[in-house]
Design a protein that fits this description.
With about 250 residues, the chain is α+β, with helices and mostly antiparallel strands. The chain folds into two domains: about 100 residues, no CATH class; about 120 residues, no CATH class. The chain contains two helices and 19 strands. The protein has a four-stranded antiparallel β-sheet with strand order 6-5-14-17, with no helix packed on it. It has a three-stranded antiparallel β-sheet with strand order 11-12-13, with no helix packed on it. A hairpin with a 4-residue loop joins β11 and β12. The protein is elongated and about 95 Å long. The mean pLDDT is about 85.
């Protein structure tokens, strides 16, 4: 009976983890460039539960362990905005963002100019060009980004957006504010990667699918809770009957 409770507990922990992942996806349905994640689990067979001295012999117990939260890198919907500082990325490419912890990477192409004249993301981090952060003078106007990533104003070019890719993009780690970190050095974006000015890439979260998953997780959690409750009730009755027999 204890084993049944422990197996049920491992299942509930896994379901709680999956619920957190779904909630994060749902919270970012409207986040530009957001990439959805899913929960993956493995079976862990308890090797200790294999004694052969009992009749019948013990059978191995299967528990649930967290395997990770792989990312879905499929293209989000491209939405036209007409904003000259908005860019949607198509293909395997990321913009490079300067942060206090080093370079980070994003697909969110809704850009702006801060009070210091720097081209920044919506959360305020400078966007890197091929030669470093892209800055503008106080008297410049009509800032715009071309399809090749060139950033210009009425006074000429100010740089070119740096775009990169990764040999293993599935290893990217989410860091909040729609940024990714990588332990591997980035590679230059390939020829298939391109920018679409005046547009943004929306989130690739499919709200209907996430809501369906949410309902499935809730039902599974409740079913497991019911099983554990009945197991505990059965144990209590067994203890009571044993006590009566001994009396």
């Amino acid at each position: 009976m204890e084993n049944a409770l422990l197996v049920g507990l491992s299942r509930q922990v896994a379901l709680a983890r999956e619920l957190d992942v779904i909630a994060n996806n749902m919270a970012n349905v409207g986040t530009n460039g957001f990439k959805t994640r899913s929960a993956r689990f493995n079976e862990f067979v308890m090797p200790i539960a294999s004694a052969e001295s009992f009749k019948p012999s013990d059978r191995p117990l299967s528990y649930v362990i967290d395997k990770g939260t792989p990312i879905d890198l499929s293209q989000g919907v491209i939405e036209r905005t007409g904003n000259p500082l908005d860019v949607a990325l198509r293909g395997d490419a990321y913009l490079v963002v300067q942060t206090p912890n080093g370079d980070r990477y994003t697909r969110a192409g809704s850009l702006d100019i801060n009070a210091r004249g720097q081209l920044v993301t919506q959360s305020g981090q400078p966007v890197m060009g091929d030669g470093g952060p892209i800055t503008f003078g106080a008297n410049e106007s009509n800032a715009r980004i071309a399809a090749d990533g060139t950033v210009s104003t009425d006074q000429g070019q100010r740089g070119k957006l740096r775009m990169v890719r990764f040999a293993n993009p599935l290893a990217l780690a989410s860091e909040g504010t729609n940024l990714f970190a990588s332990t591997a050095a980035p590679l230059p974006a390939g020829p298939e990667a391109r920018l679409e000015p005046g547009a943004i890439e929306g989130s690739n979260v499919k709200a209907v699918i996430e809501m369906t998953r949410l309902m499935e997780v809730q039902r599974s959690y409740q079913s497991t809770a019911n099983m554990m409750s009945k197991t505990d009730e059965l144990r209590s009755k067994a203890i009571a009957r044993l006590a009566d027999q001994q009396a």
